[in-house]
Batch of 3 targets.
Target 1
Amino acid sequence: MQKRVLICEFHQESDTFNPIVYGTESFASRRYARGRDAYEICKKLPCAYHGMIDAVEKEGGEVIPSISLYGGSGGRVADETMELFQKGVKETLDACGKVDAVCASLHGAMCSESVDDACGEILSFLRDLVGKNIPIAASFDLHANVTDRMLGEADLLCGYQSYPHVDFYETGYRAASLCMRLLRGEPTYLASVDVPLLAPPAGYTSLEEPFRGVIGRGKQLVADGALLDFTVFNVQPWLDVEKIRSNVIAVADTEEAAKRYAGEIAEAFFEARDGYLPDLKSIDEIIDLAESEQTKKPVILADAADSPNGGAVGDSVAVALRMLERGSKITMGMFVVDPEAAEQAFRVGVGGEATFEVGGKFTPGMPGPLRATGRVRSLHDGCFRQEGPAGKGFANDCGKTAVVSFGGIDMMICEKPGASGDPQILRHFGIEPKLYDLVVVKANTSFKVAYAPFAGVICAADTPGAGASNLHQLNWTKLPRGLYPFDLPSGYQLAPARVWKRR
Ligand SMILES: [Zn+2]
């Protein structure tokens, strides 16, 4: 009998320090599709949903395509979008009757307005819908916050093995092909080790040590046939929730192997923890460097804390404020989200001058706004295409956009954020990053490929924001005890792996 596998998707990365609710319209501007449409759209993209389709079909299964809601990063997801997803899956199931398995493309660090563990909630919903005897496999982001609820509801969790993420398709494929293995009744064990560690994503990549070595060890074990699959979940830290931790999962055909190698990878991951913290410089140190002209080329200030790609708002003017306070004479380019100020610039018109109040209006505790007289240089509809290499050609829409100059500071002011690590968010609007002494880039890691060829130096800044790399700076209210880099007990030993036989 041909196995029927339902595929669905609900993917968004939440930053609970960002107060702006992420609604259905934000998903729709990226991807919101149902049934056959979702199948056709995803088949053209290197995404997890596509990987799931191919794995199921390659093994002779029939894909029952259901809803795809694919968003970016931002605040908590609207409760009504959670309901929309559940309704979408229910409708698919009502129309098709029984299925043999479910594959869900999720993020793993998504919160809704009313639920911290929104992905656990979704997996519970899917479990209730199909019953205990149907396998459920989920694909996750590497930055997922894996909870006991998820491990209890899903049979399999597979996360990206790269950061910057380049293996969306492969991760969906791994999850669905392990799911097909369960349907064949082959022995499959999943082991999990919790790792009490929060690391800012600006501090590590899978391309550099020590994180590269940790991922490399897992890949070697899979290549050698010792493991079927593994994931190192280096949780994204901007979740002010009661349960947060990193986690390692290993999947094998014996209990012994799953347990042993999950423990071994987790030890290596945990041991290297000091190597995941970025070397942060103060805003003043970086302005000093740009003013000194030592580098002869633009100094890039990486303001990861306010990176919309990482889930922050994009409303920071912290660096511009310091520039004005210091009376700095150098030139600087940047972008900021401020719908009111953009609107004002449209009223003032090109060439006009006015006193603006820009930035710092959304993120709690953010300094600002910046109050200064500025001259409107240009007005735009906010649409641009990324130059990449990451996301080359992707369309962005920042809404009403204005470039306003405050002395030597050229500021792209827009209604809503776009791909903030791509040079086109400045270049397209006439702010050529190569020509400035200092450029503020609101991004974590991927931007370096585009900026490195013309940058004098790239500095990670200790800036405020919903995506701050300095985790001590965030206004935590629920942070659990015993986590690195906060109050990990000295001599802490990882607990042994927990193992489940799946099916
Ligand atoms: Zn991620």
Target 2
Amino acid sequence: MQTLFAKLSIALITIVVLMGAAFFVVDRINTRIYYEELTQKLNAPIAMYVTGQRDLITAGTPDLASLADLASHAMVINPTAEIYLLDKLGNILGHGLPPESVVHDRVDLVPVHQLLSGNAAMPIRGDDPRGSAQKVFSAFEVRTENELEGYLYVVLGGQKYDELASDIGNSYTGTASFYVAIAIVVLTAVVGLLVFGLLTKRLQKLNVEIQRVGASGFDTDPNLEASRSGGDEIDQLTRSFVTMSGQIQSQIEQLKENDRLRRELVSNISHDLRTPLSAMQGYLETLIIRGDTLSDQERSRYLNIARKHVTRLGVLIGDLFELSKLDSASVTPNLEAFSLPELVQDVAHEFQLDAENKGVSVVIDAISESAFTMGDIGLIQRVLENLMRNAIRFTPDGGTVTLSIRDRKQNIAVAVSDTGSGIPDKDIPRIFDRFYRAVSGEEAKSDSSGLGLAIVKRILDLHDSSITVESKLEHGTRFEFELPMYQQAA
Ligand SMILES: Nc1ncnc2c1ncn2[C@@H]1O[C@H](COP(=O)(O)OP(=O)(O)OP(=O)(O)O)[C@@H](O)[C@H]1O
Ligand SMILES: [Mg+2]
């Protein structure tokens, strides 16, 4: 009873039964009116015929014998006709019926005048002296020498008709329209239920699918065919559900991926923090336990190693802190106009010594001396430093690191390229991930954390810019990003 189909069916059957009953009643009334109109029109001449035969009233005195005679004649022609003779005021002067059956002694003349005027719509009903119901009738004026004496009033469908009607009417017209009404009700109900069944079946299918997909935690695709466009509300609903479940699915995937990355990050951080910490602990414990037996040289070597790990820890924590700061919405780049060639010059100087120590030469290739841009100078310097540090680290003795600046329509392109080891193709998509290091081996990993490029990418994101990388193994690598050109007001 809770299903939509059940509710619709109940509503439909109620409506159809009510309509069937209404049809039945209206049909009965119509039949009756039709019959009465027909009777009145067909029998209209009766009264005229009867009055035309003899003078029924002479100087106010009714000729009752003639009336009885004529009445019995008329009743042979139409057995339902009951004839009365009225005076000018509608009082009954005489009739041919059993006297005890006539209970009223006058008839209202208004309907009689209506009928005689000839322009009222039939059926017109008048008083029946033998009962309280209104009946159709026929009437005609009774005159002697153009003097109005009274009226001849003929009730059509009198008691005789009532008797017959209750016999035949019930058995024929009644039952016929009753069966027609029943047939209409049944037919409409069947067709309606079929249509509702078809419509609700689609809804039911959709409902089952929604429940199934929901129960599976949006792990399965809905098994529904959704047309591209158009269709009725159920089609639109189906389409919306298919689209929505797709979106929910991809959001769940995204959440899972985020969760996985977060776990990976936490485990990477703990690993990277623990390595220098435990190395440091080892050297310090050795110094404490065996301090007396160590030579000065060894002691200072151990202390230096411990200090190196402290520095490394400091850098790592600093990088992590910087990244989380860059991630938080609170950081907005502090935009100002500055000269890129000048910044590049500064960064080159900064790394001059490191590069010389490694036997790598640093070259600046700037086309214009005054390429101004808009950006956070401190953050852009971090980008260049991280790229330079990588480039020098991965370039062997005798190699070159080039810092170049080029004009690109509205932008200025800055590139850091080297002639170093290059990055394997399979690693390129991941080098910007946090903690990702393409070089394998603990040795290579011990003094890097894999955060440098993640910081670079984050800073450029904040500047609505992106970084591209081209690399060829054993030939070198080139990182490039663009910043907007800033036109100085003259
Ligand atoms: N110029 C380059 N040549 C070759 N490989 C590079 C170069 N720059 C980056 N890579 C590869 O990309 C990885 C990620 O670089 P990233 O700067 O993010 O981390 P890292 O340098 O290893 O550590 P950190 O910068 O935090 O000290 C590096 O480990 C290295 O394998
Ligand atoms: Mg780096």
Target 3
Amino acid sequence: MAKERIKKDVVIIGAGMAGLTAALYAGRMNLSVLVLESAIVGGQIANATGIENYPGLPNVSGKDLIAALQSQAENFGAVVDEFDEIQRVSLKEDPKIVETEEHIYEAETVIIATGMERRKLPLQEEAKYAGKGVHYCELCDGHLYQGKTIAVMGGGNAAVDAANFLTKYADKLYLIHRSKLRADEASQQKLRENPKASIMLETEIKALKGSSKLETVEILDKSTGKTETLAVDGIFVNIGVAPHTELFKDEVELASDGRIIAGEDCKTKLPGVFVAGDVREKEIRQLTTAAADGTTAAILAEKYISNKKRGKILW
Ligand SMILES: Cc1cc2nc3c(=O)[nH]c(=O)nc-3n(C[C@H](O)[C@H](O)[C@H](O)COP(=O)(O)OP(=O)(O)OC[C@H]3O[C@@H](n4cnc5c(N)ncnc54)[C@H](O)[C@@H]3O)c2cc1C
């Protein structure tokens, strides 16, 4: 049976903070809006507890924040579809095509808001201690470790910058990396000069231990073959990210880390195609910046559509 073809003003790919904010704004501007989600609505924040830095909400769970945002977007007419997986996109055409298992959507504009995943340590216990001593975001959770002992895993710029930042809270910080540091020399130097920091290279993390919360990490010194146990209150894993851009790699321009290149206006090089949230190449990735991108992308999508109706494509 032929797939049903449906026209939409805006198709948003990804129902995290960026995608749902874009849906709320676009729906409120009377555009027809569809949000396609391949996993669970909410993205990275879906299961987070105790978010303390979302303006106006001193302590909110990811579940409550996302449920409120989804219903706010739906009240303005946005449709969120979690069960129709995207098979193909063709974003250079006009209208743009987003083909799912069941439908072919013809979209005036597309907002890519597919986010990213942080790479996990290859240790089974990691999941047990996630949020209970194992963290991925220094800006989100660093303040929990005021006066404590922590470790940062990783050796690139992101890890060393995270370590430098976290010394503002921690009394003692270990940077643990399995080979040599790849971070900029200036960031390495800053960390080396910090009396709170110890850098442990050629060192691999072998086990995480604790009861209800992480208490120690077991590390292997690769040069001596000796295993050591470090008492830590928490660790921050910073061993890379995986942006969700596989679907778009032949359509839009990707940065070396796989994110999509676009400026603060969220415009890609393709007219009518925007990128919002953590999947956009940018320095700060937080809920507020994802919401800001979703806002910008939706407002500029509306402008693009209304200009196009007047026979003008301004890009
Ligand atoms: C554990 C944790 C705690 C955090 N705590 C905080 C905090 O306290 N404060 C803060 O400001 N930030 C926090 N962050 C960061 C914050 O969650 C992110 O910056 C923000 O959620 C990014 O939103 P996003 O919409 O850009 O992407 P995401 O949240 O990654 O959402 C993207 C969505 O797109 C979907 N998707 C991917 N590919 C496809 C596809 N092909 N088709 C359809 N859908 C697709 C994904 O399933 C996902 O639902 C935290 C992150 C983590 C991991």
